[in-house]
Amino acid sequence: MRTAARHFWEASRKLATGETVSSSERKRDALGLFAGLQHRYDLLSALLSFGQDPRWRRAMVAAVDALPTERVLDVATGTGLVARELVRRYGCSVVGVDQSAEMLAGARLRLAREPELAGHVELAQGEAEQLAFSDAEFDHLTFTYLLRYVDDPGATLAELARVVKPGGRIASLEFGVPAPPLWRPLWRLYTRVGLPGLGRLFGRDWYEVGRFLGPSIEALYERWPLGRQLELWQNAGISRVRQREMSLGGGVVTWGVRDE
């Protein structure tokens, strides 16, 4: 765990300075950092975001507006939080994809406790950059906290859009960086001191995750500010793109429509 955390710190530093970080390096370290955390991931994600993470996810799901007869792909599904919320809200079918076998195991455990949802959700291991699905196979698509972990966000967005039917909705949730001058210093204090401190209460592993998050989030926005992210969505074939900053900018929901 400590080695993975050190690698992630180095990857975040490289992103911030424009140095190259290989996809295999970033993915390997991401898998190592979060391995073994699936059993308390949902609870601690809410706690470490001051209870805002569930509200952000619900806002993203609301942007999808699926029908019960439709099929939604949830990429970076983790423990299936968004997949389950999609079924609860719309009664649709969901395919959840994640690169982590451990997180998918956690998703299966949670679905086993809610059999009324389990029949609507299929889980599969895979990577966002190369989805094992046909063109226009899904009616809609969601993804959560993904862009920090891919080398080429534009190419990844194009791959995500590829599997969505024309007119289908694509929605995402990412951590954000609050605006200066007041909120950003407070956010930086919280992510540099508060998050690691809270994580330490739950064990060394969560301390490392808390220590990693702030620099990782800032590295994404130094490389890809919100305006440039909007352009990436449009260049990927997604139109009518909108962004909603939530909780003083701590979370960002983005959504749009697959071009006809």
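That was protein one. Protein two is written in the same sequence-then-structure order:
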Amino acid sequence: MMVLENVSLAPLTTLRVGGRARYFTEPKSAAEVAEAVNFARSRDLPLFVLGGGSNVVLSDSGWPGLVLKPATSGIDERMENGKTFFEVGAGEEWDKFVARAVARNCAGVECLSGIPGSVGGTPVQNVGAYGQEVSETIESVLVFDLKDGQVRELCAEACGFQYRTSIFNTSEPGRFIILRVTYGLTPGGKPRIEYADLKKHFAGFQQTPSLTSTREAVRRIRAAKAMLITPGDEDCRSAGSFFKNPVLGSDQYDELTRRAAAKGLQVPSYPALDAQRKVSAAWLVEHSGFSKGYSSGRVGISRKHALAIVNRGDATAADILALKDHIQERVEELWGIQLEPEPVFVGF
């Protein structure tokens, strides 16, 4: 295991902000992960696990201890009970795995094409997009348990998946280091064409879209929203959607629609989680004075996606947080709703 010192973290994130790590390592196996953990503990260093850097805001002061970036690799396949199981190293690029699955004509992750980051990060927030979530296909997660130093396999049920959450970011944050994820996909399955953008894209098609054409469509749609990493595109310097879509109870939803009606507006929504309603965070942001292309010094809102806070160049983490706070305050003032951020905040 190689340990580096004073490593700049900003280039390892899609937002391109953050300070330096006192120590940094990329373990390639469970044994090296254990070695890294022992290194940190023997020196009484705080430990932070960094994945693909696509859903994190790192403090300008950096990290005073050890940053561990899992580099476990490999994609193994096996057939069992009519499913194709892919065992994927946590350090693998997520979209590389999706491309592999689609090339093998296996359905279940095609709508998650183009999402930046690593495989190990997908169970943490139950990554989802365009009508699919990874929890629908995750069979198990191999982890290093910091509580007792053991490597164990967690079944999907044990991961406690819900909308954008799991035990990894709720009840057991910081306990597990993800080493490998096993996905069970459907060979020859049909693509998931349920999301409005995809339905619109394929409207008028005479034949059912293939997995390949669905993947290509998702990537084109993401690119149009600057949600596909494209070199040189300023609007891609973001952490993706910065706020979660709020899920409201009936009373809160009624209050929101009342406020909207008073302004001559109608709230877009769709049924979610039993009797509750999920509403568009993007709509709330845009109707609170933060339209696409909004700028505030070195930060702003993507010109293509209202939920993406972007680094317009040389921004700091403090700049990002200032805009986040401003948006949250205005949305709560106007609509009575507290927006919850999606990214993980580190070192603040």
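Helices lie at 30-42, 94-103, 196-202, 211-224, 250-262, 281-286, 317-335. Keep this in mind for the problem set.
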